[in-house]
Amino acid sequence: MDHLIKQLRQKSEQARLGGGAAAIAKEHAKGKLTARERLDLLFDPGSFIEVGLLTDHTCHNFGLEEKSLPGDAVVTGYGLVEERPVFAFAQDATVMGGALGGMHSQKICTIMDLALKAAAPIVGLNDSAGARVQEGADSLAGYGLIFKRNVEASGVVPQISAIMGNCAGGAVYSPAMTDVIFMVQKSSYMFITGPKVIKSVTGEAVDMQTLGGARIHSKISGNCDLACKDDAECLRQIRRLLSFLPSNCGQQPPRRPSGSPNAFDPEIHQLIPEDRKKFFDVRRVIERLVDQGDFLEIKAQFAPNVVCGLGRVDGYSVGLVANQSRCLGGALDSDASDKASRFVRFCDAFNIPLVSLVDVPGYLPGVKHEYSGIIRHGAKMIYAYAEATVPKITIILRKAYGGAYQAMCSKQLGADQVWAWPSAEIAVMGAEGAVDIVFAKEVAAAVDPAAARQARIEEYRDKFTSPYYTAKLLHVDAVIEPGHTRPYLIQALLALRHKREQKPVRRHGNIPL
User: Fold this and answer.
1) 306, pLDDT greater than 90
2) Is the model's pLDDT at 511 over the cut of 70?
3) Is residue 155 among the annotated active site residues?
4) Do residues 443 and 456 touch, judged by C-beta distance below 8 A?
């Protein structure tokens, strides 16, 4: 037995070296960590258990039969993150560039199947040269098997992807089906076709960063949810994200001691300018509402006219959606609607209450936006809010105009509580625009048109856009002092914590209506 144990240790140690010391040094020279180093940072110390350590490829073509590929270029296993089970795979770029083959995909599928059985999150650390050409259709079949599991796990357990090197071709679709995508600045890339193929087909010359780097996907395409400066920060942020989430759709998110006062905040209203036309940073309001100002923003650079992210109120996780007047005046467009609707559905899937902060002048007008499909994209946001059954609280800070107000989770869309600050304006449109339509002839015939127009604007604002008018009609549950917002949120979320809402039954799989 001693001899057998020694033999096992030798084989295991050899497998853990992956592509060897030279290949490891090459990754370090790029500023990257190896697959196992990444997993060590992701999991609580000493908790990771590897599955499939001694796996190797089964390809007998193109000379591969004479080579060993330790672990078949992927490390899989499970462990604890803040003492809760998490399953993970990390592609090993030191072994054949992390290329995906048959056994490689089988290992990933095995760990995903285990995660579903255990009802625990799945984290994928992607760093691969793509499908292994030597294995042909087997590699492509492997992608298909992974995709199917992504779909089966969707909305059941959290799925988190990190792009920590190359991710190209068919490999990009698995991360795209997961809940949150992280990227590492300067060392990660994601694209369907690389620069060389694009050059040969279209004649366009582009480098890898410009085509599919973290900055592009964070700001332009919206594929990246959080961009991190290096591997270590990326893994810290994944751990942080997991702390807000339940292990599965059947659990509530874990609670943390708030460490923040729950008292009246006499200064929060000062964040809102008295001049209705001036902008402000809604993130400063969010930071005053969540525990210790701790707010994890999602897609911060993409569609910045709406802010989405996770925080805690009295220790409980909440998802926040807010109009950002600093960008496009807080108006909604196609990208903002997509960003918000995806986030709302994510929160709804994992029992995270939604808090919406409204300061929206409407949907962006213009031919460009109509051509972008703003009707179709805007409808996604309405659908997501109306479909959501988690507790939903809407707070109108300032403007709430037209269909965009409805899209920000109005009472009619199913908000459990709608509150307005005294500064709120709720109407089909702003008072100025309404007066120009309703009183156009009267103003034109007046002795002093400017004074007559201003008088009608003030009259319209007092009568029809005032939060007290909508409160009379129960479209708003309460007009509250801004300083009471956090205490009100704490009490409302506590009261709604066990909310149950039954939606009409829809066909699902083979279950008959």
Assistant:
1) yes
2) no
3) no
4) yes
| Residue 482 to residues 91, 321, 396, 488, Cα–Cα distance (Å) | 49, 18, 10, 10
Given 136, 155, 170, 194, the catalytic residue: 170
Instruction: Using alpha carbons, list the distances in angstroms from residue 386 to 155, 242, 417, 504, 505.
Output: 17, 26, 14, 12, 15
Radius of gyration of the chain (CA): 26
| Residue with more model confidence, 384 or 465 | 384
Question: SS3 for 24?
Answer: helix
Give the model's confidence band at 443: pLDDT under 50 very low, under 70 low, under 90 confident, else very high. confident
- Over 70: is that where the pLDDT of 513 sits? no
Q: Which entry of 153, 214, 404, 431 is annotated as an active-site residue?
A: 404
What's the rounded Cα separation, in Å, for the pair 55 and 53? 6
Query: Considering only CA atoms, which of 213, 247, 244 is closest in space to residue 228?
Result: 213
Q: CA-CA distances (angstroms) from residue 211 to 208, 379, 399? A: 5, 30, 38
Extract the tokens encoding 177: 């089906």
Give SS3 for 66.
helix
Question: Which of the residue ranges 180-184, 189-193, 442-446 has the most confident prediction, judged by mean pLDDT?
Answer: 180-184
For residue 389, the model assigns a pLDDT of 96
207-248 confidence digits (pLDDT tens): 999 999 999 999 999 999 999 999 999 999 999 999 999 999
Alpha-helix residue ranges (DSSP H) falling in 52-205: 102-118, 137-153, 173-176, 195-202
The strand ranges marked E within 156-231 are 159-163, 166-168, 180-184, 189-191, 226-228
> What tokens were used for 132?
């292994």
Q: In 423-481, which ranges are continuous DSSP H helix?
A: 431-438, 440-445, 449-460, 467-472
Q: Strand (E) positions, 296-376?
A: 296-298, 306-313, 316-323, 354-360
Q: Of 101, 169, 311, 430, which one is the catalytic site residue?
A: 169
> Which of 63-67, 214-218, 281-285 shows the lowest per-residue confidence on average (mean pLDDT)?
63-67
- In the set 222, 315, 329, 403, the catalytic residue is 403
3 state SS of 6: helix
Q: Is 170 a catalytic residue?
A: yes
pLDDT for the residue 50 = 96
Distance CA 433, CA 453 (A): 11
Confirm whether 168 is a catalytic residue: no
Confidence (pLDDT) at 509 = 59
Q: Is 169 a catalytic residue?
A: yes
Query: Where do we find the tokens 């109407």?
Result: 427
**Which domains, from first to last, does the chain contain?**
2-244 (3.90.226.10), 268-424+476-495 (3.90.226.10), 430-466 (no CATH)
Hunting for tokens 């149950």 — which residue is that? 500
Whole-number Å distance between alpha carbons of 293 and 289:
7
